Amino acid sequence: MVAPLTLVPPPSARRRLTDRVKRLAAEAGLAVAAVTDAGPFVELEPVLLGHIAAGRVAGLDWFTPERASFSCAPRNLQPTARSILAVGVAYRVPDAGKPDDGVPRGRISRYARGADYHGLLKERMRALHARIEAEVGRPVEARFLVDTARIVDRAVAARAGLGWYGKHSCLIVPGHGSWVLLGELVLDLELEPDAPLERDCGRCVICLDKCPTGAIVGPYTVDAPRCLSFQTIEQRGAIPREIRPLLGDWVYGCDVCQEVCPYTGAAKEPADPAFAPRSLANAYPSLAWLLRMGEAEFRETYRGTPVLRAKRRGLARNAAVALGNVGMEADVPVLAEALAGHDEPLVRGHAAWALGRLGGREARPALERARRLDPDEGVRVEAEVALGEADS
Ligand code: SF4
Ligand code: SF4
Fold first, then answer.
1. Of 135, 156, 203, 286, which alpha carbon lies 20 to 30 A from 145's?
2. What percentage of the chain carries pLDDT values higher than 90?
3. CA–CA separation, 92 and 172 (whole Å)
4. What is the whole-number distance in angstroms between the Cα of residue 91 and the centre of ligand 1?
5. CATH number of the structural domain spanning residue 367
6. Is the pLDDT of residue 132 over 70?
7. In this predicted structure, what is the pLDDT of residue 267?
8. 220/135 same-domain check
9. Total domain count for the chain?
10. Which of 256, 258, 264, 318 to mutate to test the pocket of ligand 1 (most atoms within 8 A of CB)?
11. Is any atom of ligand 2 closer than 6 Å to the C-beta of 207?
């Protein structure tokens, strides 16, 4: 007997175009790509406004209620938008770990060790756009968005099924964990939307338990002012005293909640070679060197990487705190040198804190001198408090 024929309808033109666009994305160096429609993110708007009202994004001054509302409606950006292509590059590269060379070293977040992803992603997205135009044979109106408050990037990627929200509020992408940097192409093309992934963290709370500062105040909710990524990068002034001991050896960003996540541990290696550190100073810089580096040295070492965002003074400030956390009495002279002679009062003040924390015979005279003679009142106060702590 002849089996009845099962008729499978051929893929629609829209489906075929969508599949082709995804292949073009891979050819353009984008590790992942998925599609959602250009409709508004209605449910997200009150959530964002609630975070702002609760002070969870305090310090990110550009993230205003107006900006939050704007970012939830992609057609505010591009009235002709029909689809959004969520794309990403995977950045986990092999890591030999901190060398055991007796040098006190800081730690830079993995995404910031190699090329600055903003430029790299945009370059690849533009290349993809050119290929799409060649494919469809007409100009395609597009916006290219990378890490901008003009669109809710993780929400776009989640609705497109690129990944799902972890309780640390990063997007978890199958096969890559959260080691993916996201971008969005808003297009006037009608593409076939993908379905969101039906996955979640289940009962796991590892990242909530392991966050050094308790910044993950509840599932899916990070209190930015407590987060070390905020404090080491966006914070331009003093790091709050209660946060300083919790900073450990992080001098730019923090990866703890991602490192401990079981999904992240299963991420593929190696990823994009563009994210490999150029030198040890791009991953595990010497803390003494960070405290002594000049502007030209800073610019040369971190040229083309996200670390420039922290500025030399911010990185040296973080190095002082990290040395106070992981250093020993032998590190007192370099902190005393920074307290006496660093050109930035912000760095001298944090060096005073670190000296108070390490204590020892040489710390006290350096602090006494700064308390009396430093030209900056803030540094004199830091030295005064540090002397009290060195006594206790
Ligand atoms: S980046 Fe670090 S400080 Fe921020 S939430 Fe994650 S573990 Fe906590
Ligand atoms: S550590 Fe656990 S709770 Fe946190 S994001 Fe990963 S799976 Fe979710």
1. 135
2. 77
3. 13
4. 18
5. 1.25.10
6. yes
7. 74
8. no
9. 2
10. 256
11. yes
